[in-house]
Amino acid sequence: MEILDGKKAAQAIKDKLKIDVAQLAAEGKKIPHLAAILVGNNGASETYVAAKVKSCEEVGFKSTLIRFEADISPVKLLEKVQELNNDPDVDGILVQLPLPKHIKESDVINALDPDKDVDGFHPVNVGKMVQGLPAFVPATPHGIMLLLEHYKVETKGKHAVVVGRSNIVGRPMSILLSQNSNPGNCTVTVCHSRTHNLKELCLQADMIVAALGKPEFVTADMVKEGAVVIDVGITRIEDTNKKSGFRLKGDVQYETVAPKCSWITPVPGGVGPMTIAALLRNTFTSCAQKN
Question: For residue 183, is the peptide bond before it cis, meaning its omega torsion is within 30 degrees of 0?
């Protein structure tokens, strides 16, 4: 069993970006600038955004964090998005999800300039990704592909089962794995809450991507020997023994599943750091297009 260490792979990407940004600065060119919008005070969102801002500083990006109270009107939020769209210094715009229930997420995503949509959620970017055209790919699936590439995990001809069909992870992941690329060229099955024979399908899988948000849902009896397991889930579980008051659990029961795997991602330290690395890559690409 080998660990797909997201921290190490993400650091390699960030080290390369740091050199590239220093080169831009030395040539007097524009430095990448990521603007993040955070609405409300969701604990997990606070943690994610703080990690993204810190990573920007680490590689030499400029970053701006814009905070709004949870009761902000949709109109005010859309006005800020439009302002950032029109700001020539901003290369990437990130609106941290989830948003409060009174704000329609699709309205905010659709309002983003596709050329600054470094999270890859805008329909223009999704459509280009489906057609295999250059586009900003959603950061988590992009990060997973970069992780597989970093560790040279063989995917060609493999049967991949994606558990979860969200627009953020499951659907784009299934498209990327099935594309004629490396990593890629998988035969892909997408499973979800209405799948009847989920366990049987998982047992056929050479690769399982678990992205459904249910702690320890994938157990050892669902995984065949030698499978590659990618755990996208990250849920806070209350734990009074921890200083933070919680511990993090993935969608995979790591202790029992890991011994059966050829490769597996830990939680934390697997997919999470790669999501941020992919977001930085997308922001750099957006800036490079301007330069």
Answer: yes
Please determine whether the domains at 28-113 and 139-273 fall in the same fold group of CATH.
yes
In CATH, the number for domain 28-113 is: 3.40.50.10860
pLDDT of residue 161: 98
139-273 under CATH 3.40.50.2000, yes or no? no
Predicted TM-score (pTM) above 0.85: yes
> What is the residue-wise DSSP string for 70-128?
TT--HHHHHHHHHHHHT-TT--EEEEPSPPPTTS-HHHHHHHS-GGG-TT--SHHHHHH
What are the tens digits of pLDDT across the range 136-166?
A: 999 999 999 999 999 999 999 999 999 999 9
Q: What is the DSSP letter of 151?
A: T
Active centre residues (catalytic): 52, 96, 119
Beta pairing, strands 207-210 & 187-191: unpaired
